[in-house]
Prior knowledge:
Elements: H1 6-29, H2 35-56, E1 64-65, E2 68-69, H3 71-92, H4 98-106, H5 108-119, H6 127-144, H7 157-180, H8 186-209, H9 217-245, H10 247-250, H11 253-269, H12 277-291, H13 293-302
Antiparallel strand pairs: 1-2
Amino acid sequence: MPEVTLKSWIMVLTLGCVWGGSFLLIEIALQGISPFWLAEARLLFAAILLTAVWGALGGKVTPVKDGKNRWPYLVVVGLFSSAFPFFLLSWGQQHVTSATAGVSMAGVPLLVMPLAHFFSVGERITVMKLVGLLVGFCGVLVLLGDGLMQSSGSGLEGWGRVACLSAAACYAISSVTTRNCPPIDAYAMSAVVMIIAALAGLPVAWLKEGPPPLPDLTTLAVLSGLGLIQTAGANLLRILVIRSAGSTFMSLTNYQVPFWSMVFGALILGEALPAGLFLALGLILAGMGLSQWSHLRRLFRKA
């Protein structure tokens, strides 16, 4: 049964902030590297760091134990949490507006909820959960505002939208699979799934964009940040949250990402903030609270 604690809330709020900052870094990195190699570089940096941490802690993993084979779960999580969505988004975001990509990612909680209801123990759909997720989704719509009605003008915009929605579906599948994986050390799981993702992504980047480029020092620094913090660190936190608090709770991160993305854009790039920013934030926070009301009530009682 999932257990949402104060630590769970801190981790999921941290993830929202960390992933929200990734859009800014991606925009900077794309000035010095092509999209697919950017995605693969993130995976490689993350795989190296997580493998080093895992090795320092003993480097042990038992994929088959107590009659349960964990390999199918690890492969699915590796492909659907990182490899597939990274490349789908890298390609799709070339043909759609940022608002379209944002609302696609905000749809992850709504995709996770029915999957978790049918395939995860203790994550049944309730009226309060549904209302909360819908309120949070409305907050994201307010945040993205007029951008939702704009077209990118690309001839492949329709396929770009399909790619972004497919990436959201990948995240939903990987979250539920992570939750259902038999007991396994979180550090071992995070390292193994990232190795699988990096190995799967390497031939895709090579076939699509040729041999890896040699980035300048600025691009290399940004790529290392994306790989070590936004990918490796966040992936470990993500697994810890899902394994303890459940996939539906983890999916609330996706409502925060567009908000933090706009805040970082305003603070660092001087971009204008939308007029409905605080209304959107209120709806997002209200939605998160409503969807997890039963867990919040228990926390308040303990406090």
